[in-house]
């Protein structure tokens, strides 16, 4: 079992990475008078009983939501909080997020506002959540106007990454996680980007040594960024590479057509093209990035999407300033930089 630490003073917490960790939760979980296991219908089939048993059924309630972005709403949050109040959960109770990014975002948001804040833990079950969304304390829900526009920064007590669960992950969701993995190489570490480029087939077959190395390295990079800039005042913005366009694409498709990871992969391709047009990167590096993205096998064709609608959705991004769209663009190998562009200057 590997262990990393997110250093945030009194809000610091560990990340555990290894095989079979969900069955060892009694050793790891924070103390609580009661526990709410929040999961979705798909994940519950595989791991709901395992986690309930590991936590202790006598103290653990379970709340199941529908899978996918359609559940990431204020209505879902109100339903969960009402259930907790009806069951008389207290300030000493703990929420357990068992699932991917949607479950984690909702669980963390509920924890941040229930009785003005209770403890919670992350048990991420997708590659995307394991390498990215479970670390850093971003929580929230979507609104019709945009993605993650309602939420909070609220750190968990612990993140437990059980690599065994990826064996039941659908291939489409695995590929979605690859998008965030590639992102880390582009924004922080060109050598890591080259490693992913060269070992992508082995990663897609969940080769143990490569998988654990990749998860550990991604979590370490994110831990360093979050420790330096918890609330995204500066450095943490680099984690948004591919996300400005990606979030716009998700919203324009009503959160129904693309997974988050697929949208980020397309967003990284488009934003790299914008950087190429600005002479921030050369043609050779642009081809490296697009070739790595193409290796995932997803369709990168967005010709069916309305350009004006995409721009309208991007203009609602919460990171924008002065009616200009905030992009994080590659600026050399393993480096990115924020740029604010007026709508008419966004060319892809």
Structure class: alpha/beta
- CATH architecture descriptor name of the largest domain: Up-down Bundle
Provide a count of the helices.
12
Q: What's the CATH first level of the largest domain?
A: Mainly Alpha
Q: Describe the strand arrangement of the main beta sheet, using strand numbers.
A: 1-2-9-6-5-3-4
Q: Gap between N and C termini, in Å? A: 44 Å
Query: By CATH's scheme, which homologous superfamily of the largest domain applies?
Result: Dehydroquinate synthase-like - alpha domain
- The CATH topology of the largest domain, please? Dehydroquinate synthase-like, alpha domain
Could you please describe the fold and organization of this structure?
With about 350 residues, this protein is of the alpha/beta class. The chain has 12 helices and 11 strands. The strands form 3 sheets. A 7-stranded mixed sheet has the order 1-2-9-6-5-3-4, with helices on both faces. Helix 5 (about 125-135) packs parallel to helix 8, helix 6 (about 170-190) runs parallel beside helix 10 and helix 7 crosses helix 8 (about 210-230). The longest helix has 21 residues, at about 210-230. The protein is globular.
């Amino acid at each position: 079992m590997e262990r990393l630490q997110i250093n945030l003073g009194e809000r610091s917490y560990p990340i555990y990475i290894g095989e079979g960790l969900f069955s060892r939760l009694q050793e790891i979980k924070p103390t609580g008078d009661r526990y709410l296991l929040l999961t979705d219908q798909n994940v519950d089939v595989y791991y709901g009983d395992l986690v309930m048993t590991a936590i202790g059924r006598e103290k653990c309630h379970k709340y199941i939501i529908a899978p996918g972005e359609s559940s990431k709403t204020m209505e879902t949050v109100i339903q969960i909080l009402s259930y907790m109040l009806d069951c008389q959960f207290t300030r000493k109770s703990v929420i357990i997020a068992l699932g991917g990014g949607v479950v984690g975002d909702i669980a963390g948001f509920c924890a941040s506002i229930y009785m003005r804040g209770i403890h919670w833990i992350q048990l991420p079950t997708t590659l995307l959540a394991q390498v990215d969304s479970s670390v850093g304390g971003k929580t929230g829900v979507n609104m019709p106007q945009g993605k993650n526009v309602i939420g909070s920064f609220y750190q968990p007590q612990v993140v437990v990454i059980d690599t065994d669960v990826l064996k039941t992950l659908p291939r489409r969701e695995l590929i979605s996680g690859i998008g965030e993995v590639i992102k880390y190489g582009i924004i922080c570490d060109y050598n890591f980007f080259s490693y992913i480029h060269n070992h992508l087939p082995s990663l897609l077959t969940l080769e143990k040594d490569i998988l654990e190395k990749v998860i550990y390295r991604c979590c370490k990079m994110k831990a360093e960024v979050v420790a330096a800039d918890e609330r995204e005042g500066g450095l943490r913005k680099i984690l948004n590479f591919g996300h400005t366009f990606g979030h716009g694409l998700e919203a324009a498709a009503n959160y129904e057509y693309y997974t988050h990871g697929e949208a980020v992969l397309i967003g990284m391709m488009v934003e790299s093209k914008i950087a190429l047009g600005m002479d921030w990167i050369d043609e050779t590096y642009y081809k490296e990035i697009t070739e790595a993205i193409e290796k995932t096998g997803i369709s990168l064709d967005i010709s069916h999407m309305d350009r004006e609608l995409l721009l309208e959705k991007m203009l609602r991004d919460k990171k924008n300033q002065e009616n200009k769209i905030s992009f994080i663009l590659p600026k050399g190998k393993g480096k990115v930089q924020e740029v604010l562009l007026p709508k008419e200057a966004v060319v892809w």
